[in-house]
Write a structure and sequence with these properties.
Two copies of one chain form a homodimer.
Chain A: H1 12-20, H2 25-33, H3 39-45, H4 51-63, E1 67-71, E2 79-83, H5 85-88, H6 91-103, H7 116-126, E3 137-144, E4 147-154, E5 157-162, E6 170-174, H8 180-184, H9 190-196, E7 199-203, H10 207-214
Parallel strand pairs in A: 3-6
Antiparallel strand pairs in A: 1-2, 3-4, 4-5, 6-7
The structure holds a DNA duplex (20 and 20 nucleotides).
Chain lengths: 225, 225
DNA sequence: CTGGATCCCTCACGATACTG
DNA sequence: CAGTATCGTGAGGGATCCAG
């Protein structure tokens, strides 16, 4: 049933692509990086995926040892999919691939969506950990189109997730999520964006440059671990 | 003609996969990492690829700005494909993907081949640059099945390529290329392999442990640049 | 409501043959 | 050498249906 199409090469890259190179597979891994998810959650994050393809991919990834299927204990009569240890080793590769792809990403097409997971991933990709300092404690709330995500910098670490923060130091709002990437790549000047109303701020305005500094996709980046 | 199937997400990973996520695409990039290649060279390195698919992929990769098609000057009435600067940024990602895939790679199947490029890539992936030292100068010649590749360590850098070396310090020969990966992952004990005849040596035997030490896929690795 | 299974259609892939 | 042409197959896309 699960026929793995071989590339006919004894090569790590070829074998890796046999495991996670099928269409949709790496996007499933991407969504699972942020934590275990149910079938339906994955569907929502991958709006165009046919359910049969999702089923097939999950089976293949499970068989490959990348994903584990786990039944939740009572009372949640449900099932979650999560990355195995082996699958988790893809995390940095997927993030780097995202950073590479983001460079050549233009305006969003009309049918494109931005998920909260996508925004969180973008923050985790873009962050420059070496620029954080231990004494600093900042809470950013982002509203990007419909999605709400937050980023907390404390103890030289980033905590980013979907949802809202109780007392953010700065709320950054943009109606169009097409604004987000130019901001992170410095194609869009923050000050200008605020003046033109493309980006709206609530809170300590002075924390915006710091945000751009910490989350910049184009600055040279020390190698991730 | 070139219809790019969209994933419908405004996300760096999704966009990256639209550029290089099609079947065979990353293997083409992989082969081009080692330098410009002609159409026929690519065919030889990708033994199972249909020529029309290779043509299509090259066009798509060119359109995506990953690959550049360049006509060679006279007298070589020919064409080569090479990575653009943007495409070259995939190098580390592809190597890391190869290291990830190699971990779960079993015995080669009967139809699998090993190309010289594959072996060179494996060496460049497996090398621990931080273990090289500036004073050391070693030339290894490897014969893995039919392929011949060499690795020269000098001035704390690795030079690996297909072909032969004039005066190697150690020649490492293995008839079956299935032996190569277990050696690099320390699943196969070098001393045992030599005693059993799976691996044959000519030259300074004492340089074999050093080889395994420098090229070890499983040891924790400082982040690549 | 979650977690799929089934059906049908289309197009990308794969194999082979052929050409400038 | 560097591709095009042709054609069959099967994986992906999309809608619908079903069991717990």
């Amino acid at each position: 049933m699960t026929r793995l199409r071989s590339y006919g090469q004894y090569c790590g890259v070829a074998h890796a692509l046999e495991l996670v190179g099928e269409r949709w597979a790496l996007l499933i891994v991407r969504d699972l990086i942020l934590g275990p998810k149910r079938f339906t959650d994955l569907r929502l994050g991958l709006p165009r995926i046919p359910t049969n393809v999702l089923t097939t991919r999950l089976k293949e990834l499970e068989e490959s040892g990348v994903v584990r299927r786990r039944a939740l204990p009572r009372p949640a009569a449900s099932v979650v999919y999560e990355l195995t240890d082996y699958g988790s080793q893809l995390e940095n590769i997927v993030l780097q691939l995202g950073a590479w792809g983001a460079q050549s990403m233009g305006e969003p097409k009309p049918e494109d969506i931005l998920t909260a997971d996508g925004a969180v991933l973008a923050l985790r990709t873009a962050v420059h950990p070496e620029r954080l300092n231990a004494t600093e404690r900042i809470g950013y709330q982002l509203r990007i189109g419909e999605v709400q995500v937050y980023a907390v910098l404390s103890e030289a670490a980033l905590h980013a997730d979907a949802g809202t923060l109780p007392d953010p130091d700065l709320v950054i709002t943009m109606a169009d999520f097409g604004t987000f990437k130019p901001l992170l790549t410095r194609q869009l000047d923050p000050a200008e964006a605020v003046v033109s109303g493309t980006v709206q701020l609530t809170g300590d305005f002075a924390l915006l440059p710091r945000f751009i500094d910490i989350f910049c996709l184009t600055d040279p980046r020390p190698a991730p671990v």
